[in-house]
Each structure stands twice: as C-alpha cells, then as structure tokens.
Amino acid sequence: MNLERSLYTASVLALIAAGSAQAQTTITIATVNNGDMIRMQGLTEDFTAQTGHQVEWVILEENVLRQRVTQDIATSGGQFDIMTIGMYETPIWAAQDWLVPLDDLPESYDADDILPAMRAGLSYEGTLYAAPFYGESSMVMYRTDLMEKAGLEMPEAPTWDFIREAAAAMTDRDNEIYGICLRGKAGWGENMAFITTVANSFGARWFDEDWTPQLDSPAWMEAVTFYNDLLANYGPPGASTNGFNENLSLFQQGKCGMWIDATVAASFVTNPNESTVADKVGFALAPDKGLGKRANWLWAWALAIPAGTQKEEAAKDFINWATSKDYLALVAEKEGWANVPPGSRTSLYENPEYLKAAPFAEMTLQSINAADPENPTVEPVPYVGIQYVAIPEWAGIGTTAGQEFSAMVAGQQSPEQALEKAQTLVADEMEAAGY
Amino acid sequence: MARAVTPKKKAINTAAAWAIGLLIFFPILWTILTSFKTEATAIADPPVFLFFDWTLENYQVVQDRSDYMRFLWNSVIIAGGSTLIGVMIAVPAAWSMAFVPSKRTKDILLWMLSTKMLPAVGVLYPIYLIFISMGLLDTRTGLVFILMMMNLPIIVWMLYTYFKEIPGEILEACRMDGAGLKEEILHILTPMAIPGIASTMLLNFILAWNEAFWTLNLTAAQAAPLTAFIASYSSPEGLFFAKLSAASTMAIAPVLILGWFSQKQLVRGLTFGAVK
C-alpha cells in the first residue's frame, strides 16, 4: 500500500518534471494595438516566468485583424493559438464549433467573478467561449465647465431632449466649441454601433420576430432624424468622417461639449498628459427617450482559442493568466490602478483603491450593468446584441447601411433617403441569405 | 531640336517642378515630422509645423516594443528574393518575345497583363488554402513566391520594352560569330540592357517592399515584413499617431534612401525608349 502510494507520487513528480522540461511551448497571439493590450505585451515576462511558455505577438489594425483571424479560423489555417475577438464574433463562431469552450478553467480563476453582462455576451448556449480582457459600455462624457457656463446641470441619467438642449446651449461655433461630438464614420463598428443604440432607445429595432427589416418604421425615422439634426446643428464640421479616435482627439483639444462613446475613453480624456480638459470632465449614463431602454452598448475585447490549435493547454494557461484577478493586481502594482483593464470583473469594482484611482469607475459599471444583449430593444427581437445583430450577415449589412447614414451626415441625402436605401439593402441581403 | 528657353521660363518651370515635388513629398515629410512629436502635439489643432519640442521618445518606444530588425530582414529577403527570381524568369521570356516573336506574342503579353486586372482579394481564399496544404503560411518562401508571381507580368513587360530598343542586328551578328543562345543572352543582351534591367529590378523591389495585401494576409509572427510592423501601430481605441509615424518612417527609410541613391538610374530606366 505504502509502496504503491510512493510509486504513484514518484510518477506524478516525474510527470511534472517532464512537463516542465518540455514546457517551452511558444504560442502565437493575435491582438490589436489598444493601450491595455500594449501593457499586456509588456508584462508577458511574468507569464513566461510562471509557466515557461513563450509568446509571439501578432498585432494588427482592427479591421485587418478581424479579416485575418476570420480567414484563418474558417480555413483551419492554424496560425494563431489565441485570438482577440469581440462580443459580436464569439457566439457566431462558437455556433460553428470554431472555438474551444472555456468551461474548464481552474477554480482559482473564479469565472463567476466575470461581470454577468460580459459573461452573457461571450457565451453560447450557456458556455463561455471567450474570456473578457477588457469590457466597455457607452456613456455621456461632458465638460463640467461648459455645462456650468450654460447654466445647466447634467442629471445622472439624462434624456435625449436634455442632451439636445445642452448641446444647443454649449455650442459656440466662433470659438470652435461644438455642443456634441458623435460618430459619423461609416462601418458596422463605427457609426452603426452608435446609431443602433440611439434607435434602440427610440423604440426602433433592426428586425421584427420574423426577421423582416424594420428600417421603414416611424421609430427609425425619428431616431435617425434626431441624430442627424444633432450633428448638423451642434456637431463639429466634417462629422461624417469622425470615428472614435477623431472624436477623442476633438474632445481632448477641448472642442466638444459632450461626447457619447465608449466608457474606455474616460481614462484617456481624464489623463492630464494627453488631455487639455482632464480636470473638467463629468460622466453620465447614456440618454434615453423614456421608453425604458438607454442608448448604451456593450462590448468586450476577449481572448479566445481557435479549435484545432496544437497548443490548447498553453493557450488556456495564457487566458488564465491574462484575464485573472492576479493580472489586474499585477498591472496595478506596475502601472497603477488607473491603468488596469476595466469592465471585466466584479471584484475590480469592489476594490476601494481602484474606485479611488478611477473617477469614472462607478459610471462604467452602471453602464455595463444597464446593458442587456439578450433584450436590447423596446419591442421583442429574434436576435442577440445591442449595437450589432449577432448574425454573420451583420458585418456586411451594418457597413453598407453605415455608408448611407454617413452620406446623410455629410449632407448628401436626407434621413428619408438614407433609411429607404438602407431598408432595401438590408431586405435584399437578408433575402439572399435565406431568412 | 531643342527649344530656346528664356531664363524667365526656366525659373517658372523650376518653381513649378519644386511645387509639385513638395506636394507629392509632403505626406512623407509630415509623417517624418510627426514621428518627432509627442502624442499630444501630434494631434494639436491648429497643427504645428516645425516649432515644437523635438523628441526621440517615439523611436525609443517602437524600438523597445518590437523587433525592428526581424521585420526589416524579412522585408529585404521577400522583396529582394521575389525580384531576383522574377528577373531570372523574365529575361528569357522577354528575350523570346522581343527577338523571336510569333503570331501570338502580342496576345500572350496582353494575357499576362490581364492577370493584374483581377483584384487580389478575389483569389485570397484559394491561395490561402493552397498555402495551408503546402505548409507555406507565414514563411518567407511562400511570400517570395507569391510576390514574384504578382510582379512577373510587370517585369516581363518592362524588359520586353527595353529589349525592343536593342537592334536585332547586333544579336544576329553575334549569332553569325558562333555564339549560342546562352552566350547571346548572358554576354551580349544583358550587358546592353543593364540600365533597363536595373530600373526594372529597382521598381519591383519597391513594389514588393510596399506590398501590403499578401504580406499582411499570409503572415503571422515569423515571416511578417515591415508592412505588418506598421500595421501593428494603428489603434482602434487610442491615439498613437506619433508612434505610428515613427514606425512608418522606420519602415520606409531603407527604400527611400535606396530610391534617392539610384534616382538617376531609375529615371533613366523609366524613360528608356520614350525618346526616339
């Protein structure tokens, strides 16, 4: 009996030794060049020290990355062991069996600590397929000084009517101050992400329960006209080409009274090294129209393992490292709490040190919690997703429709024309796809 | 016959040439200037031109974060390799079409050029699948091959035009002196066509260096050239224009310098045959 046990122990030890001797696995990770990912690359040594695995980084521009990983995963190219993907791709790819389920991460990982909204968005049929590296919602960022000058006070949960009133009051074109900056650049992840959230709050939806496109509805008309008027009257010139980065730049230069966009922007606009208005920024929930849905989205940059990788174990080790609580603590130790990747774990928002370092933390959490990808609209819909529709056709539909709305903001067509064209485009595409 | 040029006309011409040159060069100049700014200055509005605190910080960061030499070396091998192999195939092909044309030579030339009319993305998936099955993904060999194939029609066309300028009588004469095909191409034709071949190679080297579709789509970590190096500094959420500019400057510097040094050769080759 004793002999058996010691033999067992010896063989386990031998296995571990053998494991660590041949553990020099090199995994290839595809990701984007966002600040939090750059920090992750800088900390790779810690992962290597813990596991012995080496990491090769492939960093690509977002659209290139998306195309590149889709193509690789669809053809089983096997170029990547971990891919950075979003909430849109995760359920679609999981349904195709393209991703390795992440249901067997160790207990110390504490998957229950992942914010419920994030977990829901990154799961397919109840199983987690991608681990959130950082997450975001959208909210109103505004200039406290300009708001005060206009004699207004931003409520914690403003309505669209208040936003219009405030935008009108803050606009001062002679001094190049524009009441509101919003996305206008065409793309399903650019202007359509924002316009879709506006539409949701106005009671519009992309499809009814039978997958019939609804862009010809009065609610869409109202939402799109409102968005267009807002930008035309109180927006910066050339708004039809402004995306996240362009608006970030405008806001940091002090040219925007309000900006409704990703919560992750909060850390940029309050950073005194980059922003000229760092100490004059306030935050509020995304607006609503009194219909029970706010115009805030939900997004996560998540790490997923493509099915068929030869290095699944090492890849899981990496995910276990990069999306863990320990990783958050590691970043805090090396770079300060304000630089910790936000929006992934509940425990972060219970950490007093983080709450102190990040004045935007509470509003971020509230915005994320207010987002429900499974019930995104006032009326019921057959799809999942708030600022996108989680079907493979969406990327195409969203981008072509986005071009129509961008042309509208550029003044080339009216909201009626843009919606009419978008409705036809979407209907054709959906019919071709067999809905 | 040369036309008389008055000093006034000459001055106007010179000024116009400089203006157009500056206009074309301006984006590159702006990129280089931006690479020496801080991120905050890079997005300043109104933009600052020369009077800012010059900094090398971006180059430092780019150096620290990526292995520039590896990307550079991949670019040199891919651009150089594809150009060399392309020329080796194109010289005999252009020779036969220029000096022993058949009834169908013109058709063949046109057909070769027509392959350039297909958008590359149209064959992305077939090529990707072929590369997977041949194990060529993310290898320099694969990229040398694909870029060589992409540029081959241009190389053949350029060489064909240069060869057409060489009098066939010279080749006839050497044949009568008993030279074989090999001697004819290697010792007579090639030396005479050196300027043309050199400019063809130079142009193809630049094309291959800047090629950003196949080099991005068929590589991951190992064979990625400088185009991937640039792409890695573009960010969807965050303003890193100064670092992106520093990366771009580092990526274009080698080929820019090469272009400057061989300017004469390049211009001569490109206008070769234009003046009769």
Description:
The complex is a heterodimer of chains A (435) and B (276). The longest helix of chain A is centred in the N-terminal third of the chain and has 20 residues, at 2-21. Chain A has helices at residues 2-21, 35-42, 44-51, 62-74, 89-95, 116-121, 144-149, 160-170, 191-201, 218-234, 244-252, 265-269, 312-322, 325-335, 352-357, 361-370, 394-409, 415-432; strands spanning 26-31, 54-59, 82-85, 123-124, 127-128, 131-143, 178-181, 256-262, 281-285, 298-304. Chain A has 18 helices and ten strands. In chain A, helix 17 packs antiparallel against helix 18. Helix content of chain A is 44%, strand content 13%. The model of chain A is unreliable at 14-22 (pLDDT under 50). By secondary structure, chain A is an alpha/beta fold. Chain B has 276 residues and is an all-alpha fold. Chain B has a domain at 66-232: MetI-like fold (Orthogonal Bundle), CATH 1.10.3720.10. Chain B contains 13 helices and no strands. Chain B has helices at residues 7-34, 39-42, 57-65, 68-99, 105-114, 124-134, 140-165, 168-176, 181-210, 214-217, 226-231, 241-261, 263-271. In chain B, helix 4 (68-99) packs parallel to helix 7. The longest helix of chain B is centred in the N-terminal third of the chain and has 32 residues, at 68-99. The model of chain B has no long low-confidence stretch (mean pLDDT 89). Classes of the chains: A alpha/beta (435), B mainly alpha (276). Chain A binds chain B through residues 28, 30, 32-35, 38, 41-42, 56-62, 64, 67-68, 71, 75-80, 189, 244-245, 248-249, 252-253, 255, 262, 264-265, 268, 273-274, and chain B through 39-40, 43-45, 65, 124-125, 128-129, 132, 137-138, 216-217, 220-222, 224, 228, 231-240.
